[in-house]
Amino acid sequence: MSDTPPSFLDRREMLAAGLAGMALSTLPGRALAQSGARAPDAPRTGSASVAAHRVEVPMPHGGVTAGHPLAAMAGTRMLMQGGTAADAVVAAMAVMNVVEPWASSAGGNGFATCLHRKTGKVQSLAFTGGAPRLLDPDGDAKALDHGPKALTVPGAFGGWIALARRFGKLPLSTLLEPAIGYARDGHPLDASIAMFITRAQKTLALYPTSAAIFLPGGQPPAPRSIFRNPDLARSFQALADAESQALKGGADRDRALQAAHDYFYTGPIAQEFARFSAQTGGWLRLDDLKAYQPRWDDPVTTNYRGLDVYCSPLTSRTGLELCEQLNLVEGFDLAALPADDPLFTHYLIEAIKVAKADVYKYAADPKFAQTPVEGLLSKRFAAERRKLIDAARAGLYPDGGNAAAFDRAALERARQDFAHQGDDHTRGGDTTSLSAVDADGNAIAVTTTVGGGFGTFLVMGNTGMLFNNGLRLGSSAPYAGHPNKVAPGKVALLGNGPTIVLDKGRLKLVFGSPGGETIGQTQFQFLVNIVDRGLPIQAAIEAPRFALDADPNFYRPGAAITVQAERRFPNAMIQRLTAMGHKVELVGPYAIGSVQGILADPSGARMAGADPRRMGYAVGY
Predict the structure, then answer these.
(1) Would 287 be classed as within a structural domain?
(2) Which pTM value belongs to this model?
(3) How many domains does the chain divide into?
(4) Separation CA 410–CA 414 (nearest Å)
(5) Mutual orientation of helices 519-531 and 318-329 as an angle, nearest 10°?
(6) Which domain holds residue 44?
């Protein structure tokens, strides 16, 4: 069976575009990540080599790896103009809004994990908005899937400003310039994006403001045709002008960036959001927008085999998932197992089951529920939960463990059980992720999302911006009494988990992935490939992956679990996993997740990788 990624593959029709690597220097278009005896970065286990459809991109001064080549290039342009990693990711996110609108928007939400090299401190930024105050929590759940009632307050643009204020140098007008140009003048529409617009045509056509942009003349745009979003270009230009006018009026950089923030959250753009929401029957109002602020916080963290792993805190569930998964498998000698040994994959599958059960039991907006974070991250809790993992057979999807018993604060609280009810399936998410390092050694990973593909499917008035559908089932719990049930002002959970790994205080790895429910699973497998298998970054990205799917959902103990495995896994392994009791469903060979990451070795040399499962590109200088 060929291991070459075709143009389109799917995990539930997931994007997997096969592209070549990219760097500012001339590099070969295809490489083999060698792992034989002569290779200095040889993996300790597994087969002799992993075929790679991207080259590893050197970043001696810095660079960006992102979900689209134009975004990676825009971010790297900022670095070459003297900007920081923060400047790079803001510029790249703005371009992603233009070139990958089904997965990214200023009207979306997300997380960033940031290493400030001078202080050595890792910080997390949550740019996630809450449910509108007018939300009816007992309303029709189907209305939360798409349309004007599905959205939460847009947090992404506030996150861009927060990153620029704390860690950036360049003016917002410079950061938005590439995105404005691509939106105003157009860019060749990637064939995969054209495919997604075609598949979403029926729903996009329900909303005239969306159809005007995505269905010009009533038809989806042709692959590789010039695609424009002039309304979005005007919105971005107005935000840049708000900053420029403040600077001309004598404001310093911080106050000028605040002027752009205010233009979005209290000024003309906010007013258009609120007007259009009210006109179309939505709940979002100007007061919701005025109240929003992004939130800086400490990341969740664990130590895995001597490495410090930092990931997003609540209201992301993935940080908790990733850390608990690592804690669970730390009790197994994975490095001693060949990568094609079914036991290696079995341990990972079972760890994902246990961690998801625990996190889905407790995780919610900390302003509304007391989540036993300390307990979930406890090594003692992981040791107790590891007892559920049988080396010989697949376990049932368990009930969440008693993490509160390992959480000192939680011991002082009483927690009420909730009754499981209904069989509601959740809708997956569509997201994008990017990572950057700069010449000073600062590093940032960002994962941003509109929720499900195309979010609400609704372009908000004349702004050109799609909004997130952050209230959809999956981000919110479908069960009354669950701590993550939707409520006015509550921030629904995201799967975003941008991650930074330090080795004795020095940057080792910065990475992230899109994929909704699969994000934590993808990042877990990737990190194990780096740490336990010793793979170079591109090989670790391209190695076959699997993802667990739950019917009806991961909130339900006893849910039926299917292991969706990329069909590049050896047939003998699939047969053995099936014999162990796993239900395995083969999907496309490059179908799950899309890791973009940068790996540093002890000498400080930095190499970037990008995932061929989507349009990932790395650009270094």
Answers:
(1) no
(2) 0.89
(3) 1
(4) 8
(5) 40
(6) 1-139+293-415+424-621
